[in-house]
Amino acid sequence: MTADAPAWPADFAGHYRAAGYWRGETFGQMLRARAEQYPDRFAVVDPAGDLRRWTYGELDRRADRLAAGFLHTGIGRGDRVVVQLPNVAEFFEVVFALFRIGALPVFALPAHREIEIGYFCSFSEAVAYVISDRHEGFDYRDLATRVKAQTPTLRHVFVVGEPGEHTALSAVPREPVRPGGYDEPQASDLAFLQLSGGSTGVPKLIPRTHDDYLYSLRGSNEICAMDENSVYLVVLPAAHNFPLSSPGSLGTLCAGGRVVLCPGPAPETAFPLIAGEGVTITGLVPPLALVWTQAAPNTPYDLGSLKVLLVGGAKFSEEAARRVRPTLDCTLQQVFGMAEGLVSYTRLDDDEETIVTTQGRPISPADEIRIVDDEDKDVIPGEAGHLLTRGPYTIRGYWRAPEHNVRSFTLDGFYRTGDIARTTPSGHLVVEGRAKDQINRGGEKIAPEEVENVILGHAAVHDVSVVSVPDDYLGELTCAYVILREGAELRPAALRRFVRESGLAAYKVPDRVEFVDVFPATGVGKVSKRDLRNTAAQPAHP
Ligand code: AMP
Ligand code: DBH
């Protein structure tokens, strides 16, 4: 670890190693070991276009050869590489090649646009950016051209597909690597930078080590009963922490199982794959779980192989949770997790009431949980309060963010999750709400401040405040309350277009725009988001 990322204190690190949580293994070594153990078993299946099935042996060889190519191109240990790929097999080839040489993937989502990508590239001082040519009607090559022009450190853009003016990933020289012929990473090094949903103007980067992340994968695998016969369907964007690690694609590879990539989340896309590939487990956000439970009773496809459905990313209502078993005939596993670390699961053998009414228990006996009041004092057990956590796979600070870390972590290293939770007598967590200024739109996290900063750039806008509005389907939608400059005119649609054209991910474009003359104020004269939320939640005027 470096000064960029606060490390665990030596006594904690020593304990996590002594307890066997951190085993000194890197992702590169993990894949090599699986390739030796299961050379001919399938690791990755990509059904798009010409169906591709890569064995562990092939994935390992591909990662090796691309790693050599990256080294040849001048990318090496500690370099940051922004990876923005849809659910395609190359995602794994690229990230394992980077893991192997100790270069750090920065996991962007396909939905991100110029504002987010430009920021990830400049803030992380990325040397390369990996994209697909087109996906869902969007041309990432144009985005890359613009980002490259504004990012001095960015030397390479690699494209999966037709490269346009950039370099095709397939044209990166593939060479046999000489083992030991390069500077190999240590297990205590950073493996990648994950993204935080965030509550500030710019997203925070989350530094995860080989040691800590692999521990969370092994722990998740045990809890989710993953083994070499498990078949995990990646429905959510592959780079997101949930489908990546809970237990996700990386957990599956760690178990020697098979990862099947789903090009989109709709039942029409996913159900044939479940039937055809014998998918045993997958993970969804609550709105998608609702869609699947509605579609399942009428599907012609046999979903009998599916044993476990993980649902998380946002609160899953008890009512919706109860529908999972009757409609999909599988066990629901609620998962409450965060890219910063802590992941909590209901157990497969928990009774049905616990499964539908709680968000489970943390992975590790070494996960420390505190529920505190506004003064950081422990609440009476069972009462709701701020959830703080510390443990063997929860970061001690964001990447290059010392000022922010002072607010987000206690002096003794607990992460302030920003969630309001309580514990049941059985030790299960129930998420009751949120204290952080963040909107959770069906599992997609939005930092209001980031959206507000973009809207403030509109010439007609004097002030703006973005808040959540309850929604039956997505849980929460976004509403922008706007005060216009004197004499200015603006229509909601025009403002929404402005936000989109500014280069912000589409899911952050306000669902609703309301024009007002003043904002309600708190006692100390700040904008009262709580009052705005209450107003937004009222039924619309007749
Ligand atoms: P992030 O920090 O962007 O990875 O997002 C993690 C946040 O998602 C958590 O702190 C929670 O606010 C929210 N979250 C994740 N899973 C759940 C869940 N099962 N129930 C309620 N909130 C969740
Ligand atoms: O929302 C999340 O970030 C999340 C949800 C479930 C997560 O990171 C995870 C499981 O690992």
Question: Can you tell me about this structure?
Answer:
There is one protein chain. 31% of the residues lie in helices and 25% in strands. By secondary structure, the chain is α/β, with parallel strands linked by helices. Among the domains are: 147 residues, Rossmann fold, CATH 3.40.50.980; 98 residues, ANL, C-terminal domain (GMP Synthetase, Chain A, domain 3), CATH 3.30.300. The strands form seven sheets. Strands 2-1-13-12-14-15-16-17-18 form a nine-stranded mixed sheet, sandwiched between helices. A five-stranded parallel sheet has the order 4-3-5-8-9, with helices on both faces. A four-stranded antiparallel sheet has the order 19-20-21-22, with no helix packed on it. The structure holds adenosine monophosphate and 2,3-dihydroxy-benzoic acid (DBH). 2,3-dihydroxy-benzoic acid binds next to α8 and β16.
How many H/I helices?
18
Please summarize the sheet with the most strands.
9 strands, mixed
Report how far apart the termini are. Answer: 59 Å
Mean pLDDT: 97
CATH class assignment of one domain: Alpha Beta
Under CATH, the topology of one domain can be stated as: Rossmann fold
- Helical fraction equals 25-40%
Principal-axis shape equals globular
CATH-defined architecture of one domain: 3-Layer(aba) Sandwich
The hetero molecules present are: adenosine monophosphate, 2,3-dihydroxy-benzoic acid
Structural class: alpha/beta
Give me the count of strands: 27
Low-pLDDT parts are none
Strand order of the largest sheet: 2-1-13-12-14-15-16-17-18
**What proportion strand?**
15-25%
Question: Rg, please?
Answer: 23 Å
